[in-house]
Amino acid sequence: MIALDMDGTMLTPQDEISEANKQAIQRAQEEGIHVILSTGRGIRTCKPYADELGLQSYLVTVNGSEIWTADGELLERVLIEDDLIKKMKRLSDKYETHFWAVSTEHVFRGNFPANMEEYDWLKFGFDTPDDSKRDAIVKALSDKDELELSNSSLTNIEVNAVGINKAEAVQKLCDRIGINMEQVIAMGDSLNDIKMIQAVGCGVAMGNAQDAVKEVANYQTDTNEADGVAKAIHHLLGWS
Fold first, then answer.
1. Cα–Cα dist 131/100, whole Å
2. How far apart are CA 57 and CA 47, in angstroms?
3. pLDDT tens-digit profile of 62-90?
4. How far apart are CA 49 and CA 18, in angstroms?
5. d(Cα 116, Cα 148) in Å, to the nearest integer?
6. Which terminus of the chain has fewer CB atoms gathered within 10 Å of its CB, N or C?
7. Can you tell me the distance from the alpha carbon of 192 to that of 148, in angstroms, rounded to the nearest whole number?
8. DSSP tag of 63
9. What's the rounded Cα separation, in Å, for the pair 123 and 145?
10. Dmax over Cα atoms in the chain, in whole Å?
11. Are 230 and 214 in contact (CB under 8 A)?
């Protein structure tokens, strides 16, 4: 299996799939390798890329809160309790951060529904360039056993239900397919990729990855602007 993060990894900074990446992914599939997307994105902004690539396996979305088939069948979903979402919204207000809140039906950015109890919540995100504000938010949430914290950029915090991460989702898909984690190559660039990169047989850090990701990876490839995914696939699969 090859498990690919999207933003900062498979996608260019223009949110496109380079031709080299596309060809490498399609060749891997032709050789019988399961290629999955493993992303912090929700299904609505993930599936169009899966369709563009002609993926035939699975999609891990919202950092593992949901697992889908490539055909759009939901296999698993784990929610965050309403009171924890409310607490995080209060923290965002207190520290005056940008935020986004992901429900099963909608992504709220900068606005929050008055009838929030009517939604099922998957993830909450904070974004601020102020290190002290991020540190304070992390400290405020770290005593919550129900939450799992990561990031998808240097300025944000992503929060899922405890136990929800890309590594756990990939493990579940390995069990479903009948392979083990040693047979997986995983690529990423941010803290929400670290557990996945550490758990698989070959964890790949992008050239543009955060330093913490590079430190735990088995291999470092080129950047997402320079076909890093394609280059890693060619190198690790021994293609000429």
1. 18
2. 12
3. 999 999 999 999 999 999 999 999 999 99
4. 12
5. 21
6. C
7. 10
8. G
9. 15
10. 57
11. no
Residue 79 is given by DSSP the state P
69 strand-pairing partners: 58
Beta bridge partners of 101: 108, 124
pLDDT number for residue 145: 87
- 55 CB-contact burial (10 Å; exposed 0-12 / middle 13-18 / buried 19+): buried
Pairwise CA distance, residues 88 & 125, whole Å: 9
Please, are residues 221 and 209 in contact by the beta-carbon 8 Å criterion? no
Tell me the average pLDDT across 216-228: 98
CB 28 within 8 A of CB 60: no
Rounded-to-integer distance, Cα 48 and Cα 2, Å: 19
pTM: 0.95
130 is catalytic: no
Residue 21, pLDDT > 80, answer yes
Q: Residue 2 in 3-state DSSP?
A: strand
- Strand stretches in 155-215, DSSP E: 156-161, 185-188, 202-205
pLDDT tens, residue by residue, 158-208: 999 999 999 999 999 999 999 999 999 999 999 999 999 999 999 999 999
